[in-house]
Amino acid sequence: MFDTMTFTKIAGGLCGALLVLLLGKWAAEELYHVGGHGDHAAAYVIEVEEEDSGAAEVEEVSLDDLLASADIGKGAKVFKKCSACHKLEAGANGTGPYLYGVVNREIGAADGFGYSDVLASIGGEWTAENLDGFLAKPKDWAPGTTMGFAGLKKPTDRANLIAYLDSLDE
């Protein structure tokens, strides 16, 4: 069936086809990339006037307004991001301290949890404002904290989570 000559012809045909493909690719690159790579000036520039009056301003909503309209059910869903490290049962510390009764609790006061020096030295209480700032970006609110969470970008998510945590100890 297959002798050496047939195999040689098939192998030669495949190598020849590969060579033609590579040479075609090289030729196409030379044709379409004339002048090399680099910064090129635009051939036609469209002038556009900037309008300051048409710019939409972002309206900031106060934390009190967000908390007043917070949805505890949505806060429970947001808590799923926290549940990998935090528990909701009093005294049940995980990688992070337990969060039962965290709203208006002293910062760094969860029994049996070893806080980082930064959080242990801050003092004060976990007010809604402090929680909002911490949840937005923990590394900015408490530089040097060991909490690895990047933060919650949406203010509504933070307000929903704070309302959910506050509802647990009522």
Model description:
This is Cytochrome c-552. GO terms for molecular function: electron transfer activity; heme binding; metal ion binding. The chain has 170 residues and is mainly alpha-helical. The protein folds into 2 domains: 1-34; 64-167, Cytochrome Bc1 Complex, Chain D, domain 2. 44% of the residues lie in helices and 0% in strands. It contains 7 helices and no strands. Helix 5 packs across helix 7 (155-167). The longest helix has 29 residues, at 4-32. The chain is elongated, with a radius of gyration of 31 Å. The protein starts with a helix and ends with a helix. The model has no long low-confidence stretch (mean pLDDT 82).
Question: Helices, strands, pairings?
Answer:
Blueprint lengths: L3 H29 L30 H6 L3 H8 L37 H6 L5 H9 L1 H4 L13 H13 L3
Per CATH, the class of the largest domain reads Mainly Alpha
Q: Count the helices. How many?
A: 7
The radius of gyration computed from the alpha-carbon positions, rounded to a whole number of angstroms, is 31 Å
State the CATH superfamily name of the largest domain: Cytochrome c-like domain
The tally of strands reads: 0
Q: Please indicate the count of domains.
A: 2
Q: Which spans have pLDDT < 50 for at least 5 consecutive residues?
A: none
The CATH architecture of the largest domain would be: Orthogonal Bundle
What are the salient characteristics of this protein?
7 helices, elongated, electron transfer activity, Cytochrome Bc1 Complex, Chain D, domain 2, mainly alpha, 44% helix, metal ion binding, 170 residues
